[in-house]
Amino acid sequence: MDDMLGYIRKYPEMVLDAIEATKKSWLPSLKFDRLLVCGMGGSAVGGDIAADVMRNYGIPLQIEISRRYALPPYVRGDTLVMFSSYSGETEETLSQFAEARRRGLRTMIVSSGGRLKGWAVRFGVPFVELPAGFKPRATLPYSLFTILEYLRECGKLDLTADIDETVKVLTDLREDRQKDSEMTALAGLMAGCRISVYAGEAFEAAARRVKNQINENSKLPASWDVFPEMDHNEIVGYEDNDVNTGNYVLLLRDADEHPAVRERIEATKELIRGKVKGVVELWSLGRSPLAKEMSLLFLADLLTYYLAKQEGKSPDKTANIDALKAVLKEKLNTQDKLENGLV
Ligand code: F6R
User: Which residue's CA is minimally distant from atom 5 of ligand 1?
Assistant: First the structure.
């Protein structure tokens, strides 16, 4: 169904539903030292944010994301490999699953249906079933909080208090229609521009996610980078040239940024301000790292929704993604080949 604004406003309920769905799935409590999340686009982002969460809370669990056809060769038995595809039909994710079966790796599946769900049932793979009917990118709370709840069940972390805060912050944001007005005003400034999204190191995954949401919801070109790394390369692209004059810079800010990161962001702003059409900032809300990152993602989702409206585009449709998937299916039909090759 096409209801992107409705999906965004459902974030608090999705957080709670994801936790319930994971609890109901009766997953085995496995022992593992690393988590590899295989997925593409909107189904990979939950893994990205979970990796930020591990760093921001100092939790010594390595989470890596694999967005490709092949698994990393070094993955061994100490790694749980989670396959995340909302449709259950994404060929890169299916290819990695087939490889994991051949290599005898420990697997888990998160999906709303498709072949991946069928394979979970057929091979008895631990499985979390997501509700059908959403756009994959709109289910970020499902993919993220499924991971966090499963890690809690395995004794890796317990963020219950911060999840409660996150739900409250997201609910308050949803009720605050002033935020809709602010995001509409920002969208008015940024309409028609190429947008560069930058965040501090704590919220690296948010920068990538917001760039993707600008692409998919607003149908605009965008890029992302992160401080401090971008101060060692990206800023040189703003030296004496006029290629950026029609571009906007969107900074994802946080009151608790590392002091050096804060200095870098302020100094970088001064360097680039005159070279671009404008620089705007979204500030996180809440106390905990989880609530802060989710508040930025919620605000940015609203912004990308209103940007689509400014552009006169449907925030729901992603015609080029659909067209490309159809071409690949027609030419290669990787899904059927994998299905036939699985034993
Ligand atoms: C569409 C979207 C895409 C998909 C991607 C993978 O809303 O966000 O980025 O997530 O094409 O498809 P799924 O998620 O079905 O594995």
Answer: 41
